[in-house]
Amino acid sequence: MSLRLDVVLLSGRGASLEVDASSTIDALKQRAQRELGVAPGTLVTSAGVEVKGQATLAAAGLQHGDLLSLHTKRVQVASSRTGGFSAILGDGSVACWVSRSCEDCSAVQEQLHSVQQIQASDCAFAAICSDGRVVTWGNPAYGGDSSAVQEQLQNVTHVQASARAFAALRGDGRVVTWGPWRWGGDSSAVKEQLQDVQQIQSSRGAFAAILTDGSVVTWGSSAGGGDSSNVRMQLQDVRWIRASYAAFAAGLGDGSVVTWGIWGLGGDSSRVQEGLQDVQEVQASHSAFAAILGNGSVVTWGDIYAGGDCSDVQEQLQDVRRIQASFRAFAAILGDGSVVTWGRALQGGDSSAVQEQLHSVQQVQASDSAFAAIRSDGRVVTWGDSSFGGDSSVAQEQLRDVVHVQASERAFAALLGDGRVVTWGHPDSGGDSRAVQEQLRDVQQLQAMSSAFLAVCATGGILTWGKLSIE
Asked: Domain Ubiquitin-like, which positions (predicted)?
């Protein structure tokens, strides 16, 4: 008996196939992949059930006229702080969910094929295709228009973004930039120095590139760390760079750290320079840095009201494994699973109200002014400003078997082990998901922007909630 089955990709492109009911699922999948010209993937029924193997179509319960989805790879989602979301679908095409302030990708849709990665500024996106091309969209004032440098955007391997500009690293080690100059979109002043670049990092308004020889080249707003001339001679054998809002911290091969940028936002580490030895990792809040040393202790600098001073909890900061930052506070997970916090109390720097619950902690996530900790038993503990998700009491009974938490500016979303999602915090930031709750089933991943969330379901469905329309 012959069956007609419709197989579609997540982009909507599909093929109608006439097959024998005695054919196997694997044979159907291989034929669909050939017809659609895509890489191997998985077949999913309209009910969200994956079908595979040597079972016949009849045995799998497939009937004439059934619709199946072909997922060729995991959906990759990029979020822009205020612009929305863009997702690389299983077939390498792109779908967008953007705010009113950000143009969608419809004007460049035909160019968006075989996309490998997407990077986002605050309100624009840049996609790298498999052939090294770059395609951009979004608000032109945020880097959404790359037409002035399009011919140079060839053989691109990586793209980095500041708040309103982009920097693309090419395979030949050169860098191409675009967007407003005051946000790092013009690198012409250092063009000759930008050769043999290995990595690029960004603050809100500037970029820093690590060259093959371990030196660093910076450009963009001098108020954002774009001028490193005062420390240029110290920037040798640089291995990594981290950034706060307007400052940079570079880790050297000998374990020391060099900083520059706005001194009050972490650009001046002279007060603790002697202690910055054997640095293993650095985390940044808006205007301060926290470094984990090889012995598990912590050194902080920057705005003392944003976590730059941890003296009150210094003795507790031993055997530190990981650090998370909100806008003006830090939370450190210790080796025994307990948590130590410091910084502005109302923004998560004071966890005393829930301290007894902070044990066996596996990970911590932060909104702008609150924290959420996942324990090994799958429960969640929150603290900080209640209007930013610091109070999860309304959802606490549902917060069981939590495997991951994502945060927007003022809300949280927790993914449970059974694929359901629980939200709390400010409704305008995605803290209220009731409008899509019935559809939030078999969720595989969550992503967030400042005021909304996006969920990718096992069926290939993609849902958003919160406030995508930025007024």
From this structure: 3-74
User: Which tokens belong to 146?
Assistant: 């790359």
Residue 470 has pLDDT above 70, yes or no: no
- End-to-end, the C-alpha distance of the chain in Å comes to 57
Question: Given the DSSP bridges, would you call strands 288-293 and 279-284 parallel, antiparallel or unpaired?
Answer: antiparallel
Show the tokens assigned to 453: 């969330």
* Rounded Cα distance, 19 and 383, in Å: 57
Q: How far apart are CA 187 and CA 182, in angstroms?
A: 10
Q: Is the pLDDT of residue 164 over 60?
A: yes
Topology at the third CATH level for domain 2-71 = Ubiquitin-like (UB roll) (3.10.20)
Structure tokens at 446: 């969550």
Give the pair of three-digit tokens for residue 332.
Answer: 């450190």
DSSP letter (8 states) at residue 34: H
Bridge partner list, 437: none
- Please report where in the chains the tokens 């990792």 appear, as a residue: 281
At position 335, the amino acid (one-letter code) is G
Q: How confident is the model at residue 471 (pLDDT cuts 50, 70, 90)?
A: very low
User: Nearest 5°: phi and psi at 29?
Assistant: -65, -45
In three-state secondary structure terms, 394 is helix
Which pairing describes strands 67-71 and 2-8: parallel, antiparallel, or unpaired? parallel
Torsion over CA of 4, 8, 12 and 13, rounded to 10 degrees? -80
Question: How many whole angstroms separate alpha carbon 207 and alpha carbon 162?
Answer: 7
Q: How far is CA 200 from CA 39, 204, 207, 364, 367, in A?
A: 31, 13, 7, 27, 26
Structural domain spans, the chain: 2-71
d(CA 259, CA 267): 5
